[in-house]
């Protein structure tokens, strides 16, 4: 019995990330939400010191929601927020990210082969307004 066969019996598999090419679909802007910048003080409970802590700040958010036939995204982008309105149609670009599991398939212990592929995420790339 080879070392590879022993490792296979222990269930030692390999997982890797695989990104698709950029895919496009027609989507619609379904919502726009602006959240103002906020400043606040922290208390000693959070900072570990007694009394007031340092001032904290959260940046303003310009969130657009897109819904397509396959995808839905919430994007924080000020430029897109200002150029798009609810109901606008866009050409939405995104990448699909897969988690691929590789393992030996007996009796072939020469090279690991793909045994599963699971869609783990979709990553926003672009949105271009359609006229």
Ordered list of secondary-structure elements with their pairings:
Layout: H1 3-9, E1 14-19, E2 23-35, E3 38-43, H2 44-47, E4 52-58, E5 61-68, E6 72-76, H3 78-83, E7 89-105, E8 108-129
Antiparallel strand pairs: 1-7, 2-5, 2-7, 3-4, 5-6, 7-8
Question: Overview of this structure, please?
Answer:
The protein is mainly beta. The chain has one domain (3-35, 66-129). Helices cover 13% and strands 64% of the residues. It is built from three helices and eight strands, in the order αβββαβββαββ. It has helices at residues 3-9, 44-47, 78-83; strands at residues 14-19, 23-35, 38-43, 52-58, 61-68, 72-76, 89-105, 108-129. The strands form two sheets. Strands 1, 2, 5, 6, 7 and 8 form a six-stranded antiparallel β-sheet that branches. A two-stranded antiparallel ribbon has the order 3-4. The chain is elongated and about 65 Å long.
Q: What is the strand content? A: over 45%
Q: Which stretches of 5+ consecutive residues score pLDDT under 50? A: none
What is the molecular shape?
elongated
The tally of beta strands, per DSSP, is: 8
Number of helices: 3
Order of helices and strands: HEEEHEEEHEE
How far the N terminus sits from the C terminus, by CA atoms, comes to 65 Å
Radius of gyration computed on alpha carbons? 24 Å
Task: Sketch the major β-sheet.
Answer: 6 strands, antiparallel
Q: State the domain count.
A: 1
Overall SS class: mainly beta
Helix content: 10-25%
Estimate the mean pLDDT confidence: 83
